[in-house]
Amino acid sequence: MTSSSQQRAVFFDLDDTLYDHLIPFRAALTNILATKEEFPYEQAYHRMRYYSDALSAELGGTPTHGEELHQMRRRRFQLALAEFNLQLTPEQAQAIQDEYLSLQYAIELFDGVKELITELKARSFVIGVITNGPPDHQLNKIQALSLTRLIPEELIYISGAVGFTKPDERLFRHVTDQLGLAPENCCYIGDSWRNDVVGALDAGWKVLWFNHRSVEPESDHQPHHLVNAYPEIAKVLLQRM
Fold it and tell me: Quick one: which of 26, 65, 12 has its CA closest to 230?
């Protein structure tokens, strides 16, 4: 029988790792601003995520409630879309944010996620989620994805509930301490360089960088594997770990 310190574990990020976060972003811009088919949605999405992370860092971590959270969410849209010659009023930014939030619950897991998690569980891996954000908002997404059919709720760690925010390595250490896991036997899969790659590596975890948006690294950290699609993730986890 494997002791908990020897137990292998795989934890996933949520947004744009388990489902396509670009879909609600694109729909929000189309619905509120009537952006056209040729608009560079993916590039704009990446910049929105960049400013979301940067503004959160300025605040000492992702805010989980109150005016700070609302202001950060509006500002990230204003800063990102200004790079694409779309100057938003605070009211327009709020309208996009509201639409974006409402659309985030009409989501589906990426192809291959369910099969991969099922196979990892069959091989006795501990499987969980570590995600930033307000607990209620993230849990609504988790419910929309029916994720608790695959992963028990007690293995879903949300920054707003734990009290630490990625990339703070204390969030990852909280998980290993609570579950009695050795960091070197834990693997984290995420799309965000700053939050996922940096945070997990600093905590001593193995990291698969899910770089399906083909973005550039932001530091000299070295993820253990670079993957672009779920077949690659499955190959690494099932054949090399």
Answer: 12
- The pLDDT, as a whole number, for residue 1 is 40
Predicted structure pTM score = 0.91
Within 83-112, residue ranges assigned H as helices are 90-103
Contact 239, 232 (CB under 8 A): no
Closest CA to 116 of 189, 175, 7, 205: 189
Q: How confident is the model at residue 61 (pLDDT cuts 50, 70, 90)?
A: confident
pLDDT tens per residue across span 139-176: 999 999 999 999 999 999 999 999 999 999 999 999 99
- Residues 6 or more apart whose CB falls under 8 angstroms from that of 52 comprise 72, 73, 76
Q: Is the CB of residue 224 less than 8 Å from the CB of residue 208? A: yes
> What token pair was written down for 199?
């945070």
215: three-class secondary structure by DSSP: coil
Q: Is 5 helix (H, G, I), strand (E, B) or coil?
A: helix
Q: Could you tell me which residue, 3 or 136, shows the higher pLDDT?
A: 136
Q: Is 78 in a helix, a strand, or coil?
A: helix
